Amino acid sequence: MPAQIINGKKISEEIKQEVKKQAEALYKETGIVPGLAFILVGDNPASKVYVTMKGKACEELGFYSITLKLPAETTEEELLQKIQNLNSDPKIHGILVQLPLPSHINEQKILQAIDPIKDVDGFHPVNVGKLVIGLETYLPCTPAGIQELLKRSGINPSGKHVVVLGRSNIVGKPIANILLQKKEWANATVTICHTGTKDISYFTKQADILIVAMGKPEFVKGDMIKPGAVVIDVGVNRVDDPSSEKGYKLVGDVHFESAYEVASAITPVPGGVGPMTIAMLMKNTLQAAINQIAVKQLSN
């Protein structure tokens, strides 16, 4: 039986509508609008597209947003100063520095300069540490979106073997940490595979839930998947396609056609994990506004 398609586009819209209602209620109660600042350094075309999409989502949800577009030659000191200004701006509840940054800027130094309470990407070491030990915090948006996709599709990871391909700080490590927590919609046995793993298919064939985030187009084929497994494809790769008007097509890290025949459920590319990232960013920004209102009330 072919797999159930997990529709990230539909689920992300549901989340955004929920966030919009909550933000409207927050405004009625406090007069505060969630505010998000984007910092874009240089002219990476993909980064420009992502920031535009995120800004559009803010508009749809009635959030306040600003985008600081800085030239590629911006110094680390100048960027740190911009972040300090946003840290102290009461209208801004979330700060997002679009990665990658130009090579002369230390990425970690920049991420650590963001006030943890405004770190809606969930990349600050304070928030990463909270995630690892199971405290409430902002979860990185793509991994949080994966957990939400599973939850809203009725796929409970509890007691299941989850295999994650990829160990990035953006997806692989955080999703592993999220799903091994002793919490609802988690509590899984998690294995991480990476470039040092010998015989990856040995592990993928054991997965009840296979999460693929390695940046290799169509790497995972149907014969690497356990029959009836759930497949979450995080990859977005542009590959040549002479038959397409654009000359290319987008594919995931999983060979969709062969995986579709074996899996019980699968995310498509595009339209699977991708739309969830922005929805979870909006959710984190709303939470950041609520957190900052609470801090202000405590200090008054």
Question: Could you characterize what this model shows?
Answer:
By secondary structure, the protein is of the alpha/beta class. It folds into 2 domains: 30-115, Leucine Dehydrogenase, chain A, domain 1 (Rossmann fold, 3-Layer(aba) Sandwich), CATH 3.40.50.10860; 141-274, 3-Layer(aba) Sandwich (Rossmann fold). The chain is 42% helix and 16% strand. It has helices spanning 8-30, 45-61, 76-87, 107-113, 125-133, 141-152, 172-180, 200-204, 256-260, 274-299; strands spanning 4-5, 35-41, 64-70, 94-97, 161-165, 189-193, 209-212, 230-233, 237-240, 248-251, 265-266. Strands 1-11-8-7-5-6 form a 6-stranded parallel sheet. Strands 3-2-4 form a 3-stranded parallel sheet, sandwiched between helices. α2 links the parallel β2 and β3 (64-70). α2 (45-61) packs across α10 and α6 (141-152) crosses α7. The chain is globular and about 60 Å long. The termini are far apart. 40% of the residues are buried. The model has no long low-confidence stretch (mean pLDDT 96).
